[in-house]
Amino acid sequence: MDKKISGISVLTGGTLSRILIKKPFVKKLLVASGLQVIAVVLLITLTFYHQSLPTLLLYVFLLHSTGGFIFNNLMSYTLTRFPEFAGKAAGLVGGGFSVVTSILSSLLVNTLTITNQTTLGVAYGVLAIGVLLLIVKIKWVANESAVSNPNTKRSPAPVAA
Questions:
Q1: Does some domain include residue 119?
Q2: Which of 57, 65, 77, 159 is deepest in the core (most CB within 10 A)?
Q3: How far apart are alpha carbons 26 and 158 in whole angstroms?
Q4: Is residue 161 part of a domain?
Q5: Into how many domains does the chain fold?
Q6: For residues 7 and 123, is the Cβ–Cβ distance under 8 A?
Q7: 8 closest CA partner among 65, 54, 75
Q8: Which parts pass through the membrane (predicted)?
Q9: What DSSP designation does 157 have?
């Protein structure tokens, strides 16, 4: 059941990402990451008073939905940023995401002893705040089709023979 909820939540985040495709990229990431942090804080507060399977599944659904939303936006950004290397870019982003997630998850599991949902919420909170900080600190290139530096000469696009 948990796997299905997780999959449905990532699908929900990806679908929402597709619906909001015309919205500003960085703003979408900041809002999604901020909502993720807010959800963690609310769920930690909730689990101080009530711990059950539905609250655990609420963790999974809310956090994996925002995670799916953020991942789909980052994947789309990479593919549009490097269209001539789309396959390599997608492989690097997908593989990099998997490696970074595995390393961070292993560090958290080996550092924290998760005995209840509140501690799990703290672990999710650490990851959510880390994602938010990364999104804030990265300098995103947006609207590259606009001339960013008027002194830069652009070469013509390559023509297929």
A1: yes
A2: 65
A3: 30
A4: no
A5: 1
A6: no
A7: 65
A8: 29-50, 56-77, 89-109, 121-138
A9: P
- Euclidean distance between CA atoms 129 and 36, whole angstroms: 9
Q: What is the C-alpha to C-alpha distance for residues 18 and 12, in angstroms, rounded to an integer?
A: 10
Give the predicted TM-score (pTM) of the model: 0.77
124: confidence class by pLDDT, cuts 50, 70, 90: confident
Whether the pLDDT of residue 156 is over 70: the answer is no
**Residues 42-55: what's their mean pLDDT?**
89
For residue 153, tell me if it sits in a domain. no
CA end-to-end distance (rounded Å), the chain? 53
Contact by Cβ (8 Å): 63, 36: yes
- Helix, coil or strand: residue 114: coil
**Torsional class of 143: left (φ above 0), alpha (ψ -120 to 50), beta (otherwise):** left
2-6, 24-28, 82-86, 119-123: lowest mean pLDDT where?
A: 2-6
Residue 115 lies in a domain: yes
- Among candidates 93, 87, 96, which has minimal Cα distance to 72? 93
- Cα separation, 127 vs 107, in Å, equals 11
Other beta carbons within 10 Å of 17? 21
